[in-house]
Write a structure and sequence with these properties.
The chain is of the alpha/beta class and about 350 residues long. It contains six helices and 18 strands. The protein has three domains: about 200 residues, Rossmann fold, CATH 3.40.50; about 60 residues, Roll (SH3 type barrels), CATH 2.30.30; about 80 residues, Translation factors (Elongation Factor Tu (Ef-tu), domain 3), CATH 2.40.30.10. Helices cover about 20% and strands about 30% of the residues. The longest helix is centred in the first third of the chain and has 20 residues. The mean pLDDT is about 90.
């Protein structure tokens, strides 16, 4: 009897091809379109209606059922409220990681298991390797698209019920499959916005939820050189949107956010892209979500502190207050609220929020 699989079909090419591959392999496939944001339906930045129509066209072409699931309440309570609270604390959270943790691999997963599906599947670029009774999360074949970074905080127990159909395929091949199967999403642009919220001017969007609060911008010598609209609108290492004009006695080089003082609502900026104030060789993590049962040598790990970063060598030490990560080379703009994700070769070991 064919496995019953619930596939998250978002209206994009990756999930479309995932559904097509599973159907071709003989699985009993049902598509599920998740609606997780309702605050501003109908605005130019909310593409949920267009995405649903594309998902429906794909499922119709593949001759599979499409159901609609609404996790807007869960998204607002578990993802978006945490996102806003972290910003208020001066952090720079990553909502996509929490969306995966609480929505795609919790609410969606729970729905599938409750409704007698054998597995869930998504269009994430990653792979699974079964080793004895353990399922290891591995990087995708297409390294430029690998998404294990965003999956570091899911429960490892759910992996045994997951399928990632495109993890062993290059992105170019995914689009070719979609085109060959005449799926309407074959040339659809990849989404790069916040999970389920879409692509929009970030400060304008945030101003609907967080008040603007004028504050001071200082240089490294504590000279007042500008004003800002609230530290929660900025992140460490940021260059754009500072609004600093010509500063007397300074060069024409761009300015970068080097420090955020959340208590006093002030920013410190520097001009050198690799200024000492932007570099650090250690960071702290209160809690790490491990995706493996047995830890490897903690003195010789790879890690990333942001998605597009190349793997960095580090060591890890547990203390009474959490974990301390030491890097072989100083890291630029280590940002509280973002995630550090650990690897042993191509295996994603898990990760945690930078404290």
């Amino acid at each position: 009897m064919a496995n019953k699989v619930l596939v998250g079909v978002s209206g994009g090419v990756d999930s479309s091809v995932s559904a097509a591959i599973l159907k071709e392999k003989g699985y009993e496939v049902t598509g599920a379109f998740m609606k997780n944001w309702e605050d501003d339906d109908g605005t130019p930045y909310c593409s949920v209606k267009e995405d649903f129509l594309d998902a429906a066209r794909v499922c119709d072409k593949l001759n599979i059922e499409l159901i609609q699931l609404n996790f807007s309440k869960e998204y607002k309570e578990k993802v978006f409220e945490y996102f806003l609270a972290s910003l208020k604390e001066g952090k720079t959270p990553n909502p996509d990681i929490f969306c995966n943790k609480f929505i795609k691999f919790e609410a969606f997963y729970d729905y599938a298991m409750t409704n007698n599906f054998d597995n869930i599947a998504t269009g994430h670029y990653c792979q699974l390797e079964q080793k004895n009774d353990e399922y290891l999360l591995k990087k995708s074949k297409d390294q430029s698209k690998d998404q294990t970074y965003f999956l570091n905080d899911i429960k490892k127990e759910v992996l045994k019920k997951c399928i990632f159909p495109i993890g062993n395929i290059e992105k170019s091949e995914v689009r070719k499959i979609a085109k060959d199967k005449k799926l309407v999403t074959f040339d659809k642009k990849d989404s790069t916005g916040i999970c389920f919220i879409g692509e929009r001017p970030f400060p304008d969007f945030l101003s609907n939820y967080l008040p603007q609060k004028k504050g001071d911008i200082f240089d490294e010598n504590s000279n007042l050189i500008g004003k800002h609209n609230g530290v929660h609108f900025y992140t460490l290492g940021q260059r754009q949107g500072l609004g600093i004009g010509g500063v007397k006695g300074s060069s024409e080089q761009p300015w970068y956010v080097a420090a955020k003082d959340n208590l006093n609502n002030s920013l410190t900026v520097v001009q050198d892209n690799n200024h000492p104030l932007l570099l650090n060789s250690e960071l702290k993590v209160k809690k790490i979500n491990w995706l493996i049962s047995k830890l490897p040598n903690l003195n010789n790990l790879n890690c990333k502190i942001r998605y597009r970063q190349k793997d960095q060598l580090c060591s890890l030490k547990e203390t009474s207050n959490g974990w301390v990560v030491s890097f072989e080379e100083p890291q630029r703009a280590i940002t509280p609220g973002q995630s550090i994700v650990f690897y042993d070769g191509d295996t994603c070991l898990g990760g945690g929020e930078i404290d």
